[in-house]
Amino acid sequence: MVVATVLCGCAQLVPQTVALRTGWPEGVAQATQISNVPFFPQDQYQCGPAALATLLAFTGVQVTPEPLVDLVYLPVRQGSLQLEMLAAPRRYDRIAYPLAPRYADLLSEVAAGNPVLVLQDVGTMFTDWHYAVVTAFDYDAAELYLRSGTEPRVAIPFTAFERTWIKSGYWAMVVLPPDRIAATATEERWMRAILAMERSASARAIIRAYATALQRWPDNMPAAIGLANQHHAAGDLAKAAAVLRQALVRSPESIIVMNNLAQTLSDQGYQGEALALIERASDPKSPFASEVRATRQLILQRMNPQAGSKPQALP
């Protein structure tokens, strides 16, 4: 009975570590180490900038913790919030992806060669939040290895790590260039990460991110629309039309694709083809009915030599 009680208590304290004993992630090696991960010793209270610089520098960004301080460090809190940690990489044309709160996902990312930034509570009696970067693990030794504080390699048992990690809700993130996708990314969550990236990244990086997502998930409509919109905004109407034509092949009844392709064709000067396509998209019950009417009116105005109209933005 004593043994059973101890095991039960352990499972309650570190449930995901216990689950790994019988459910190691499929396809993940039991030991791995990511080489050439930069290391920036963390000054007092500034573990956030140092940990974030580690991930950014690993992806090829020439950066040190100093310029990141103003982006993520909050003096009043003497630390960095997760929201700022996710937002900062986008300024460097990188995708910040928050992982699902699972030990298996952390291990999968490290095994795929992606260092993982984690949020821990390393306090003994009181809460003491701390960012570190997981770079390796060894199942037989039951240890993870982190860039943490002033140490380039800190070994911590799986169980002890989970006790510090669980208090943050198992919060973790990876940072990747726009032509790569996280090992554990789901289609919906990855698209949300790209949409968030749009707020501050360069057009070239956003185009590459959408193109990479569309290559992985060819039927993803938001990726196709986003990529076409970026090409259109950059003035590359031919590429925008090509993306939309392919999207229409995959989703021939999509009103938004028909509308956007019709406008793009009209912008190229193909008014007859554009009008035929926008007529197909006409549906008074559609939530995009007003956009379709506006596009149809624009095409008709352009077909009339006496009428003038400014190009409208794609929805």
How is this structure best described in words?
With 315 residues, this protein is of the alpha+beta class. It has 2 domains: 175 residues, Cathepsin B, Chain A (Alpha-Beta Complex), CATH 3.90.70.10; 86 residues, Tetratricopeptide repeat domain (Serine Threonine Protein Phosphatase 5, Tetratricopeptide repeat, Alpha Horseshoe), CATH 1.25.40.10. It is built from 14 helices and 9 strands. Strand 2 and strand 3 form a beta hairpin. Helix 1 crosses helix 2, helix 3 packs across helix 4 and helix 13 runs antiparallel to helix 14.
- Mean pLDDT over all positions: 91
Question: What would CATH call the class of the largest domain?
Answer: Alpha Beta
Radius of gyration computed on alpha carbons: 25 Å
Oligomer: single chain
Which features characterize this protein?
Cathepsin B, Chain A; 315 residues; 7-stranded antiparallel β-sheet; 2 domains; Serine Threonine Protein Phosphatase 5, Tetratricopeptide repeat; elongated; alpha+beta; 9 strands; disordered N terminus
Write the layout of secondary structure elements.
Layout: H1 2-13, H2 15-22, E1 31-33, H3 47-58, H4 65-72, E2 73-74, E3 79-80, H5 82-87, E4 95-98, H6 103-111, E5 116-121, E6 129-138, E7 143-148, E8 151-157, H7 158-165, E9 172-176, H8 187-197, H9 203-216, H10 221-233, H11 237-250, H12 255-268, H13 271-281, H14 289-303
Antiparallel strand pairs: 1-6, 2-3, 4-9, 5-6, 5-9, 6-7, 7-8
Helix pairs in contact: 1-2, 3-4, 8-9, 9-10, 10-11, 11-12, 12-13, 12-14, 13-14
